[in-house]
Amino acid sequence: MKKWKPKEWDLRKALRLYVIPDRRIGAPLSLEEQAKRAIEGGATAIQLRDKEMDGRALLDVAGAMASVCREADVLFIVNDRLDVALLSGADGVHLGQGDLPVTEARRLVPHPFVIGASAHTPDEARKAEADGADYLGIGAVFGTGSKDDAEVIGPPRVREIADSVALPRVAIGGITPENLPEVLRCGVDGVSVISAAVRGNVRERTAFLWKVLKSLS
Fold first, then answer.
1. What angle do CA 77, 181, 196 make, to 5 degrees?
2. Which is the catalytic residue, given 37, 49, 169, 203?
3. Does 5 fall in a domain?
């Protein structure tokens, strides 16, 4: 494990524009380069999510992305892989319903390492909060091409889940500049995006998302 001290984050601010680079959607740019350009455009958090990369390659990419985010003072989260998150010096990990339980992850991490959890129902949200999660990822709000098996829950359910806990909350799934106002009315603190930020000119697309978000603050 790298010797680093996790920092305290104001997660309601850090989660405002949460960008997830993607090797397929953001091609030909590398994940690291997508992260750099997204940060230049205004991303406040970056997540490394790749289901196909082997552990060694994922750790190499995570280390590079952690350095980019640390230099820019941007929150860096690794999806699913707590081992990779800890070894790379990431700020936190995001755990889905089928991943390591939040309670077990909390036992293994230093304070104030960030643990995010996915929630699709109010019960899942309340359990994540009780188990020690630091923030919730709620969705999929709308249909999305970046995750074929995502369950679409719609804005009303997002609002119900958001209202069920006091944790910082970020919405994910099919979010675009056009539907941002509707999503923010659901009571979330921020939005997590893939295609809306990294398909095409990453810097410009992220900057436009940030501009829309600021106009809605």
1. 50
2. 49
3. no
The domain total for the chain is 1
Catalytic residue list contains 147: yes
β partners of residue 116: 94, 135
Burial of 55 (0-12, 13-18, 19+ CB in 10 A): exposed
pLDDT single digits (tens) 35-52: 999 999 999 999 999 999
Could you give the count of Cα atoms lying within 13 Å of 109 in the half-sphere of its Cβ? 31
CATH number at residue 196: 3.20.20.70
**Exposed/middle/buried for residue 83 (C-beta within 10 Å: 0-12, 13-18, 19+):** middle
Q: For residues 167 and 129, is the Cβ–Cβ distance under 8 A? A: yes
Which position among 37, 81, 118, 157 bears the catalytic label?
118
Residue 133 sits in which domain range?
A: 11-215
Neighbouring-strand partners of residue 117: 95, 136
The one catalytic residue in 147, 157, 169, 203 is: 147
The question of whether 49 is a catalytic residue gets the answer yes
pLDDT digits (tens, 9 = 90+) for 120-151: 999 999 999 999 999 999 999 998 766 666 78
118 belongs to the catalytic site: yes
* 116 in a structural domain: yes
